[in-house]
Design a protein that fits this description.
Blueprint: E1 2-4, E2 7-9, E3 24-32, E4 40-43, E5 46-49, H1 51-66, E6 70-77, E7 81-88, H2 101-118, E8 126-135, H3 138-150, H4 155-158, H5 162-171
Helix pairs in contact: 1-2
Length: about 170
Amino acid sequence: MTLFQNKFRVESARLKDWDYSNDGVYFVTICTYKHINYFGKIKGSEVKLNNIGRIVSNEWLRTKAIRNDIVIDEFIIMPNHIHGILIIQNEDKSSTKKSNISNIIKGFKSAVSKKVFETGFKSFKWQSRFYDHIIGSEKSLGKIREYIVNNPLKWKIDEYNKKEEKLFLEKIKN
């Protein structure tokens, strides 16, 4: 942590010297404020989305429709977070309108919040940041896809235990 204007601030978790608009495969996790279960429930090994969860799903899928340089890969919406793999494939390398992970997530969170608020649910909030991991190999991609698919099976054990996810990502590092 560093001091900025007499207040401590958390350093960025982003990889230094990496352009997050670069073509690549990115694993992202976006959480609700205080990990509140806004999106639904886990029943057995399945996620049962409620109305807010369906809004999240629709907006996540809409990301591809509004950004032609994005591919939506495996994803899952859990009761209090979403895991997803996004692939950036910038066709026009010289374009100044390239997608980047921060703008994609910002737009997604904003669209979801707006639609949720329109339903009358005004107390919905996202956690202010999100987690990302640059996937560097097919092996890592396969393991992360498996992690996403199996996430509901672990819900009773960890209910989004960040330590478990961090350990998992450390294991699969290239």
